[in-house]
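Lest this sound abstract, we think one record worth quoting, the chain in one-letter code, the fold tokenised, each line plainly labelled:

>
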Amino acid sequence: MVRVKYGQGRVGRSAVAALAVMLVLSLALAAGAQNPPAQPPAAQQPQQQQQSPEAGGPAGDVGPIAVPKKKEEPPPPKPAPKKVEGMPDYTVRVDVPVVNVDVTVTTKDGHFIPGLGKGNFRIYEDGVPQTVTSFQQSEAPITAVLLVEFAANNYNFVYDMLNSSYIFASQLKPKDWVAVVSYDMKPSILVDFTQDKSAIYGALNSMRVPMFSETNMFDALWDTLDRMDRIEGHKYIILVSTGVDTFSKKNLDQVLKKIQATRDVTIYTISTGVLLRLIVEPQMSGETNLTFLQADNQMQTFARMTGGMSFQPRFEAELPEIFRSINGIIRNQYTLSYQSTNPKQDGSYRKIKVELVDGVNGGPIQIRDQKGKAVKYNVIARDGYRAKQAVE
């Protein structure tokens, strides 16, 4: 111990205090050197973080510096097109049109030729070959409208019409759907689609005394096509008429466009009063004769455009055979389908051509009867269709 005497030298109290502090510090350092402080327990030691190289950032004297790795951000979204006020939203979809074609193959006498296969048919659309995707031949019920001219023009015309209508009705089958529509100034639905044959006979029996002499065939055919366009499946129109139009609001060009735009409808035409016309033709004026010639041409055009047939019976005895032929044809048609190679929805009219070929080598086909004799045949199909119109 160091003892300091106040009486020795001229040392003040402040100097003594400073000396005492120095002595205390010296003693503390000496004690620390002999007894180093104990290490804290392992649980109390802060754990050193092990940083992987993927942590990013430079490495220092104390280890790698943890810097969060930069995330890969998705590309910024493309700006949406400016929406014009008042313009509706549209979804664009491209549909490859499927075209159904009913084809009838008959002998020169109008008898149906069965037994043909998918490979016997070749279809062209606007001259481009098409691939037949589906093919079938079956006897099925029909959906038909009997559209008849009932006007006070000539008794012979009415008589021929009624005979034709009764014979057509007599050959119907229980599952057929038929409506009867008559026209003079305007069309009149005598009976809507029914499978009741007695209702059809009742409608025909109601046509006794015609009231008007106008025969507005274009308006009646337009109205019938418009109604049938809402019915699913294939439909038929049996048009029994002189073919003369006198007072329609629609004209021939409009009706032809309507026929082109109406899908799955086949028209068969039966001309009335042909024998009377032949008898009185020498006394007809040139204008009257031209009118009937034009009427015949119109009836034939309606049938040809839709894949039907046109008949001009002269005698009453011809009617049963004609309607047997029609019934046999419309119940036994070949139905072909193809996906058009022209996907444009431009509302254009596409021409269709159907040919018969040998299914083996693709050459001309030879059809023979039971006696081995070559038979001339007719291939009957609609001459085209109108494509859908895209939304503008």
